[in-house]
């Protein structure tokens, strides 16, 4: 064992539920704090679904901009006013945003409500995992923090399910947005009757309250050790700085333990976004259409499968996170992500380079006023005049769509202007299919396989582990400030990806976009191997001691050696 930590084996998952059964108070803390994740996932998907296509990037980006501010503020409020108080404030923001969006009379009001919700998402994204982490026994901490990730993905699945059920029902979007206020009210009520984080209370000098809560969480033989380690951590802070109140950027960067934690924590949060996950989740209906599926209904149904796999992956994380460890799960996750992105790159390259041709005869079947202007002006006989579906959809003067041949979607079709009249004319000409985002392809099913594999590999590792690591890797004194900084970095990266994805695919194509994500995933794998320590089973105060030694175990699959002789398998390096 390391640092007096209990040895973990394959029974950890069963132990988690056994402990929760014997002590339901722990599970109540975790799920009550994790309801914010359900709100986060539900609202992220649903708002972009009900927004007009022309505003999709703006709606998503404004929410993420709000989350950036919320995460930064949350880092301060969690240290100043407490973890529970910050969750209550986030609930109020969720509720206010849901009401504003449900009563929106125009796009501007929808954006305002989205900003409110974004502020709540940003605060909850770093506060909920932190609260759960500080109120969980060390040996099952990863599994309990993973419940927050499960509720996020469960909220996304619920949003796609509701959106699919009401895609053709008019006027339902208001209550679909407004219903997000219900979980916010539920969580607010539950958190009023739950205690503050015991570690925050201890740091604020409220030792009796903290010890009373710890005795409800830990067994009698464990609680004294936890209290003693907490005393040592707080005493070390007082000796180091002479004050436990002032936290500055300079102090963070001067402290080796904090600096090493920030490198790992912030790096994981940034790479979580740069490997492209929110591109898949935010725009999965669009990606499915790019794979050659014309129907919006079909695209939404397939996106429901994608979000379901994401939720399933979170359950896998709950099972493995305290059994195999954080680092091993990250490595396996990223290897799978890289392979999946390679498949997607190849499929979309093949789809784009072998799209159906545009036929003058097929286009001539429709009124000439519906012909795509660029195609009408371009002489097919001239040099470089060959037109196919891909070129049709990239027409520069106006948006154009491809009407597939009635004899088969892979045969030459018509290039028409992209409007309701042309779409209806296409559908009315023998039930043809109308494409505006992607072209017909025989490889569409393979793109879906690649997306499914991406989600299956991403969700258990890169989907949940960065939040778990950031909830446990920082010293108590700096936990709020560092967690807020890492969450802010996550949302800044999220904004960059969300703002640029659709524009990037139009500029360089979907295949090259996925190739870029693949290259970033390789960089993420190298980063994890070199910079991220293993924190499995370590009490939170013990993590700080581990960072002081900065033991980087490159042979992450090997068991930890004992601390008695001061040796560690693997190599040691400093940051």
In short:
The protein has 575 residues and is mostly helical.
Describe this structure in words.
There is one protein chain. The protein has 575 residues and is mainly alpha-helical. Among the domains are: 14-194, MFS general substrate transporter like domains (Growth Hormone, Chain: A, Up-down Bundle), CATH 1.20.1250; 357-435, no CATH class. The chain is 69% helix and 2% strand. The protein has helices at residues 12-22, 24-50, 56-80, 83-102, 107-134, 141-165, 173-178, 181-192, 198-203, 207-217, 220-241, 249-254, 256-274, 277-282, 284-290, 296-324, 326-353, 360-363, 373-377, 389-393, 420-428, 444-458, 465-472, 479-508, 510-531, 540-549; strands at residues 400-403, 414-417, 434-435. A three-stranded antiparallel β-sheet has the order 2-1-3. Helix 1 crosses helix 2 (24-50), helix 2 (24-50) runs antiparallel to helix 5 (107-134) and helix 16 runs parallel beside helix 22 (444-458). The longest helix is centred in the last third of the chain and has 30 residues, at 479-508. The model is unreliable at 1-11 and 562-575 (pLDDT under 50).
List keywords for this structure.
575 residues; mainly alpha; Growth Hormone, Chain: A; three-stranded antiparallel sheet; 26 helices; 3 strands; 69% helix; disordered C terminus
């Amino acid at each position: 064992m390391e640092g007096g930590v209990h040895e973990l084996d394959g029974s950890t998952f069963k132990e988690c539920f056994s402990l929760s059964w014997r002590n339901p108070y722990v599970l109540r803390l975790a799920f009550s704090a994790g309801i914010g994740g359900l709100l986060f996932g539900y609202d992220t998907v649903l708002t972009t679904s009900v927004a007009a296509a022309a505003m999709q990037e703006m709606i998503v980006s404004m929410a993420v901009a709000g989350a950036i501010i919320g995460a930064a503020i949350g880092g301060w409020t969690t240290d100043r006013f407490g973890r529970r108080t910050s969750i209550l404030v986030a609930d109020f923001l969720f509720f206010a945003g849901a009401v504003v969006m449900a009563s929106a009379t125009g796009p501007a009001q929808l954006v305002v409500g989205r900003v409110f919700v974004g502020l709540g998402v940003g605060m909850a994204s770093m506060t909920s995992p932190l609260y759960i982490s500080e109120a969980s026994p060390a040996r099952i901490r990863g599994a309990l923090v993973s419940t927050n990730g499960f509720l996020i993905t469960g909220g996304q699945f619920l949003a796609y399910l509701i959106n699919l059920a009401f895609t053709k029902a008019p006027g339902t979007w208001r209550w679909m947005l407004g219903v997000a206020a219900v979980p916010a009210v539920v969580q607010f009520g539950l958190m009023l009757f739950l205690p503050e984080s015991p570690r925050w209370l201890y740091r604020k000098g409220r030792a009796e309250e903290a010890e009373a809560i710890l005795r409800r969480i830990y067994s009698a033989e464990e609680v004294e050790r936890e209290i003693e380690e907490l005393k040592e951590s707080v005493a070390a802070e007082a000796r180091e700085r002479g004050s436990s109140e002032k936290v500055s950027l300079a102090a963070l960067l001067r402290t080796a333990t904090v600096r090493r934690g920030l490198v790992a924590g912030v790096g994981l949060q940034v790479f979580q976004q740069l490997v492209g996950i929110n591109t898949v989740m935010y725009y999965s209906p669009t990606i499915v259409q790019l794979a050659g599926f014309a129907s919006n209904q079909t695209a939404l149904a397939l996106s429901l499968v994608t979000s379901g796999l994401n939720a399933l992956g979170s359950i896998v994380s709950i099972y493995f996170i305290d059994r195999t460890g954080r680092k091993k799960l990250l490595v396996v996750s990223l290897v799978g992500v890289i392979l999946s992105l390679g498949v997607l790159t190849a499929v979309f390259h093949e789809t784009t380079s072998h799209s159906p041709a545009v036929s003058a005869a097929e286009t001539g079947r429709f009124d000439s006023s519906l012909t795509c202007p660029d195609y009408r002006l371009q002489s097919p006989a001239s040099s470089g005049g060959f037109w196919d579906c891909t070129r049709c959809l990239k027409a520069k003067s106006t948006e154009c769509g491809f009407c597939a041949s009635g004899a088969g979607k892979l045969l030459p079709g018509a290039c028409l202007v992209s409007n309701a009249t042309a779409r209806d004319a296409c559908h009315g000409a023998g039930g043809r299919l109308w494409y505006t985002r992607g072209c017909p392809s025989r490889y569409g099913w393979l793109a879906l396989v690649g997306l499914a594999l991406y989600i299956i590999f991403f969700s258990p590792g890169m989907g949940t582990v960065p939040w778990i690591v950031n909830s446990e890797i920082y010293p108590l004194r700096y936990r709020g400030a560092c967690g807020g900084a890492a969450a802010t970095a996550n949302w800044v990266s999220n904004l960059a990806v969300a703002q640029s994805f659709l524009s990037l695919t139009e500029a360089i194509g979907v295949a090259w976009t996925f190739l870029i994500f693949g290259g970033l995933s390789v960089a993420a794998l190298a980063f994890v191997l070199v910079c991220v320590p293993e924190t499995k089973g370590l009490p939170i105060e013990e993590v700080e001691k581990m960072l002081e030694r900065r033991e980087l175990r490159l042979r992450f699959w090997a068991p930890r050696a004992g601390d008695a002789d001061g040796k560690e398998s693997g190599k040691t390096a400093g940051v």
